[in-house]
Design brief:
By secondary structure, the chain is an all-beta fold. The protein contains no helices and 11 strands. Strands 2, 4, 5, 6, 9, 10 and 11 form a 7-stranded mixed sheet that branches. Strands 1-3-8-7 form a 4-stranded antiparallel sheet, with no helix packed on it. It starts with a strand and ends with a strand. About 25% of the residues are buried.
Length: about 120
């Protein structure tokens, strides 16, 4: 059974940092492109950051502030968020998408990140 479980969300003030993590089980970690998305009520889910092999890609709104990384040994993907802004407030979701079979596409349950003074 595939599971993606996110950890580390919470309430922070503008300008602060937060790191969220996602632990994967039931998949061969290296066979998946790993991504973080975020969503607010009434809005579409948007891609925040993606890591594929050693290559990373970021939404323009978070570039130079967020860093995605992964640990094969722990089957964990991280999102380090610096200089947080109120507009970064959202539910953050972990995604794993198989390189070879696009039908194998998995989501975590989400973790709330709130940036507020």
């Amino acid at each position: 059974q595939v599971q993606l479980v996110e950890f580390g969300g919470g309430l922070v003030q503008p300008g602060e940092s937060l790191t969220i993590s996602c632990v994967a089980s039931g998949i061969t970690f290296g066979q998946y492109r790993l991504s973080w998305y975020r969503q607010n009520p009434g809005k579409e889910r948007e891609m925040v950051a993606t890591i594929s092999g050693a290559a990373t890609n970021y939404a323009q709104s978070v570039k130079d502030r967020f860093t995605i990384s992964k640990d094969y040994a722990k089957s964990t993907v991280y999102l380090q968020m610096n200089s947080l802004k109120t507009e970064d407030t959202a539910v953050y979701y972990c995604n794993a998408h198989n390189y070879i079979n696009p039908n194998l596409n998995y989501w975590g349950q989400g973790t709330q990140v709130t940036v507020s003074a």
